[in-house]
Amino acid sequence: MPGLPLRRRSLVDEVVEKLRALVDESGLSPGDRIPTEAQLVQQLGVSRNALREAIRRLETVGLISVRHGQGMFMSERAGLSGCTKLFRSAMEISGKDLSDLAEMRCVIEYHTARRAAELASPEQIAELREALERLGCDSQSREEAVRTDFEFHRKLAEVGGNELMLTLMTIMEELLLSAILLATEKPRDFRTNLGIHRAIWEAVRAGDPDAAEQAMREHMKVFCSRIARAAEVSTKPGRMSSTLT
Questions:
Q1: Which is it for strands 92-93 and 4-5: parallel, antiparallel or unpaired?
Q2: Which residues of the chain have pLDDT under 70?
Q3: How far apart are CA 230 and CA 222, in angstroms?
Q4: Residues ≥6 apart with Cβ < 8 Å to 150
Q5: b/e map 177-194, b = 16+ CB within 10 Å
Q6: Residue 191's pLDDT is what?
Q7: What local confidence, expressed as pLDDT, does residue 65 receive?
């Protein structure tokens, strides 16, 4: 099956790469301080807004740690998270790669749903509820809608406290983002999943691991069908540019 080209690189993607290159060239180690925001704006020649979004992404995947009032530091997980730059440098993903990633995500998601139902505190249940409510927002772009969906799943994973699993999930999300966007025409297509996300949340709130896993399995069926559609759509001439713009 032909490779699936990744989405067009955005300004924030470029800033992320510049930051990673700076970290590599500086030889920073876990725990080392990173230049301030003002210094980075000047050094990289980028806007403050683009830099802040890039920092947020790198913090999400665990490459850097932002300590309010102290600054930015290399994360203790920086060595592991640094492997994301290898994925970013890849220009295409095959249909087989997508299938393998989807299978891996399903295994992880089933586990995180069960663990969340077993371990979630009242505060974490409330955070999941807030993420669930954001899924129903009508003003989001397609990419914002996908990332809001991912946010809900990361919140589930955070309950289990497995840092490695959370990092793997974040890497997979970035790799799968383009495929999901390719197979989805409008943001409302993601909001149709609101009911199944609510079922997952209700099972977690009830402390029912079996129900949480079953609801997640139903959700992953929809996810896998989108991945299969993305692989099919990517082979149609002219379809790529019209879908990703």
A1: antiparallel
A2: 1-9, 60-62, 76-93, 183-192, 233-245
A3: 12
A4: 173
A5: bbbbbbbbeebebbbebe
A6: 60
A7: 82
Angle between helices 194-206 and 209-233 (to 10 degrees): 160
Q: How far is Cα 57 from Cα 125, in angstroms, rounded to an integer?
A: 24
Domain boundaries of the chain, sorted by first residue = 4-81, 94-244
Sign of CA dihedral 113, 115, 118, 120: negative
- The three-state secondary structure class of 91 is coil
In CATH terms, the fold of domain 94-244 is Four Helix Bundle (Hemerythrin (Met), subunit A) (1.20.120)
Backbone angles phi, psi at 66, to 5 degrees: -100, 120
Region 4-81: CATH code: 1.10.10.10
Q: In the prediction, which pLDDT does 237 show?
A: 44
Structure tokens at 238: 């002219």
Cross-strand partners of 64: 74
Distance from C-alpha of 108 to C-alpha of 223, rounded to nearest angstrom: 14
Q: Phi first, then psi: give them for residue 236, nearest 5 degrees.
A: -90, 125
**Judging by DSSP bridges, how do beta strands 4-5 and 71-74 pair with one another?**
unpaired
Q: Please, are residues 27 and 120 in contact by the beta-carbon 8 Å criterion?
A: no
